[in-house]
Amino acid sequence: MTEVQEKIIQIAGSITVDELAKALGLSVTQLIGELFKEGIVATINQRLDFDTASLIIEELGIKGVRIERKNTSTKLTNFHRELSDKAVERPPVVAVMGHVDHGKTTLLDTLLHKKTVEGEAGGITQHISAYQLEHEGRKITFLDTPGHEAFAAIRQHGAMLTDIVVIVVAADDGVKPQTIEAIKFAQGANAKIIVAINKIDREGADIPRTMADLAQNGLQPEEWGGDITMVPISAKRGDNLDKLLDMILLTADIEELKADVEIPSEGLVIESHMEVGKGSVVNLLVTGGELKVGEFIVAGNAYGKVRTMLDFRAKPKGKATPSTPVTVTGFKDLPNFGDKFIEVKDEKTARKMALLNAQQASDASASANVTSTDLLRMMNTADNSKVFNVIIKGDVLGSVTSVVDSLKMIDTGGEITLNIVATGVGDITENDVYMAEGGETVIYGFNVSVPTNIAKMAARDGVNIRTYRIIYELLDDAKGEMEKLLPAEVVETETGEMKIKGVFRTEKTAIIAGGEVIKGEVRPQYLARVYRGKDEIGEVEVESVQREKIKVENLVEGETGGIALKLEKKLTIELNDRLKFFTREIKKRKL
Ligand code: GDP
Asked: Which of 315-324, 338-347, 515-524 has the lowest mean pLDDT?
């Protein structure tokens, strides 16, 4: 490698192979050639992220070059997190999580209808992603989401959304896998946990057992000296829901939840979709300031002027204070689920910031072409990895993001590469089927349907379309597909050993011998490696075993008997050879 001068290379989001070559004082072909030697096939325009570039410089042994991250933070990252002394109390934001069928939806529905003013909630038939209710004259914000993954996605985007997680556990079913996931999520997000032990009206409901189950999973009930509040409820009948709300408020009081209002408004995108005649319809959760109609806001690469603002009951709202969920129109593009939004002073600033964010996002996603993990994988496995191609369609952007993020979280130990061919909002279309053709691509639809003509077309072209309403089921299916791609594992199990005491007959494909089992056992169909002294001389299969000339099922340690062996290749067996028996299974691997 040529010696290069001492220099510092600054990398913003990512750098192309071309730029890196120039910065290193190498020709592009030289760099590509060097990369190739390392097992990396790169093109001139391929973008490399910071870690990858560092790794390359290190791998190539280039001295005297230092690379630095160039700071590209914009105003948008000045998201107000530190509270001023003018901060005021705000309602708690509560998420309800738990295992499927344990009663999350029922709880959210019952609360909505019981605790919001009579008549108002009756009009709510559509799915709502968040609502606010009043208890003891105070407000509580509840969030409903497509799944825990959605929260994980938000956490990945670096924002805290929930103050309190209510974990619903059915008293007749106990702790289940998604209960454990919910616990982990809440702990990871640093949210306070309250457990609602549900379905206590049911026969078979066992509160103490459920509590013990929870305790085993790290949630110690207050009653037993722990720190987790557990409220037995019936979401269906409405038993004890006031107590649950009391506990939520109590927790909120202890946490002293506050927000600044005298700042430009800010918050998070919790759902977004397009509607005919309205354009983008976006659900926001205000976390600071006061959002008003007419304000300019930016969220990721989308911006707009708030044209209309409605509360969860679809009633016009002039201003939204912290912890309030609202639905706004006016965004020119669809912002992404989990994006932060912030108010800016005018349209020009909004446009500029959205553009800047778009550039940064494209830098980041371009650099995702080759990440350092990919690179390491390429170096280690010389491209043995299999690719799982998918197209993801969802009813709203939030669910698409959740599905994509969750799929990315499936750990295949680097053996399978997930290739997201396309994503989109809405029903499965002809175009999706075209894209999936011939590429062994699975189209996943989440909460969307497949028009009959499209289903027919897919069946004709052998394209796989699978629709789901429960995210875990979709993920299980995807896992199953990925497992099919994993190379099978050969598992050998040692079963015993025999010492040859005599050879009775040697034919081309068979040997009959006698010996003593000195370890374990031998049965027909076992395989054996033949050892002479220390050398392995061949492999044979046991056809049958005999004790005193009678065929038997097995011979065990200490017994002497006859053995008929099948040969694949010519082999002779001699006195004192050893046969080490084993079984060989081909196992499909699980993720
Ligand atoms: P989710 O999957 O967690 O949202 O569960 P759902 O709210 O859809 O509830 C699953 C099933 O359990 C439904 O049939 C509900 O009617 C029933 N269910 C929910 N809560 C209760 C309860 O407190 N008591 C009884 N008996 N059934 C309940």
From this structure: 338-347
